[in-house]
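Severity: low
Component: inverse-folding endpoint
Summary: output formatting inconsistent between runs
Steps to reproduce: submit the following structure tokens with default settings.
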């Protein structure tokens, strides 16, 4: 039987995915006012997330109000345990708030069922992680192709999309290489290609340069920034690295479950 909550999901509008990027707004103090007139990609209203830890309640997010406009590049910083990962889970349709609402374009995520959230993730969101999350026994091309695990895309179309994605990150000549045959930076490029192969409207990156040296970090950030500009993506990067965060249009700090704007 179809989960009744799935009826709350509606597909993201075309106009949202084609919005242009905004200029930086370092002077903003209220996260809800940083849209600058551009249609929002994300709207979080009074979002609270609590967990039970033994006999105490842990508040990971505490009444967060946040608007992220379509096409904006946002960096999120903050201390360990401050709520960064929980916020990314909300943006990634990986979890639901205890209270409040999370909206992605026209899709209301807060009350959606598991199948509906999975459909949103598959259709709208690409993920990049610090640890690459590549399957060691699969080639670069095969790892990228895992994004099509639902089997709904014809094989020829999958192969063409994989080739294009690897070419876009500069790894066309490495398609047949296993992860063990690639450097850390090359493995992260494969992971980025996997995140982009289905042409999402949102790219969420969790410490994407955390395992890399400074030179490779800068190369990966050049790649992510280029992809963001070329494709008009909404890009959210969680990072401890201030050098990475300073490259974003907008910087947020989350601590104690609350979000504040940071200046340049």
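Observed output (run 2 of 3):
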């Amino acid at each position: 039987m179809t989960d009744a909550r799935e009826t709350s999901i509606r597909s993201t509008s075309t106009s949202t995915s084609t919005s242009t990027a905004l200029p930086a707004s370092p002077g903003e103090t209220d996260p809800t006012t940083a849209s600058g007139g551009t249609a929002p990609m994300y709207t979080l209203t009074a979002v609270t997330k609590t967990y039970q830890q033994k006999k105490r309640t842990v508040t990971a997010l505490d009444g967060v109000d946040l608007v992220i406009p379509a096409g904006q590049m946002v960096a999120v910083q903050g201390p360990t345990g401050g709520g960064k990962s929980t916020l990314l889970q909300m943006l990634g349709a990986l979890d639901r708030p205890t209270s409040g609402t999370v909206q992605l374009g026209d899709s209301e995520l807060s009350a959606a069922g598991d199948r509906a959230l999975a459909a949103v993730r598959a259709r709208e969101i690409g993920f990049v992680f610090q640890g690459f999350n590549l399957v060691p026994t699969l080639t670069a091309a095969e790892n990228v192709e895992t994004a099509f695990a639902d089997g709904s895309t014809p094989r020829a179309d999958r192969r063409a999309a994989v080739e294009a994605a690897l070419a876009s990150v500069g790894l066309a000549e490495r398609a047949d290489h296993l992860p063990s045959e690639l450097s850390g930076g090359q493995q992260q490029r494969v992971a980025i290609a996997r995140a982009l192969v289905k042409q999402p409207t949102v790219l969420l990156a969790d410490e994407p340069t955390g395992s890399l040296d400074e030179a490779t970090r800068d190369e990966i950030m050049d790649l992510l920034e280029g992809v963001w500009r070329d494709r008009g993506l909404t890009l959210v990067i969680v990072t401890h690295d201030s050098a990475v965060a300073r490259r974003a249009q907008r910087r947020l700090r989350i601590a104690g479950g609350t979000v504040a704007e940071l200046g340049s």
